[in-house]
Design goal:
The structure is a single chain. The chain has about 150 residues and is of the alpha+beta class. The chain is built from 4 helices and 6 strands, in the order ββααβαβββα. It has a single domain, classed as Nucleoside Triphosphate Pyrophosphohydrolase (Alpha-Beta Complex). Strands 1, 2, 3, 4, 5 and 6 form a 6-stranded mixed β-sheet that branches. The longest helix has 13 residues. The protein is globular and about 40 Å long.
């Protein structure tokens, strides 16, 4: 079972443009995102939302504030939520409980945990462009739908 928090931060006034990044695998993702070095490397090529598993004893709101600080350098961002979703994956019976927080920013922050951090236009983003199945998180809240064929 995984308990995770996600920040879905949109460009102000443009809900279809969401802050996502390509993580820097040599950043301390074992601490800030609960990713060991092999998983950080494997997920460094796709778009990811700022996110992390919850630390033992941590509530979802505390996790959202920690993610904002440790992954984005933002102190006390204005977010709404959480929206909560659960999923079971395949025959392994792996259960995820996901807490999703939403908010808006004027400009993307700069943080050295990411090779690139920017607002991504979800209407032009394909399933294979995402890492760690983060398209599922965006689909839960109605921000992303699977696309057919190449992006124009």
């Amino acid at each position: 079972m995984c308990l995770s928090a996600f920040l879905v931060m949109s460009r102000k006034g443009r809900p279809n443009e969401v802050l996502m990044g390509h993580l820097r695998p040599d950043a301390p993702w074992d601490h800030i995102g609960a990713l060991d070095p092999a998983r950080a490397e494997a997920n460094s090529k796709g778009w990811m939302l700022p996110s992390s598993q919850l630390i033992l004893g941590e509530g979802p709101g505390e996790a959202a504030r920690r993610i904002a600080q440790e992954q984005l350098g933002l102190r006390d961002p204005s977010v709404h939520g959480p929206l909560a979703f659960s999923e079971v994956y395949g025959s392994s019976n792996h259960w995820d409980l996901e807490f999703i927080f939403t908010g808006e920013l004027d400009t993307p922050p700069v943080h050295d945990a990411w090779k690139e951090l920017r607002f991504v236009d979800l209407s032009r983003t394909r399933k294979e462009d995402f890492a760690r199945s983060h398209e599922d998180i965006l689909a839960h809240i109605g921000r992303w739908k699977p696309r057919e064929g190449p992006v124009a």
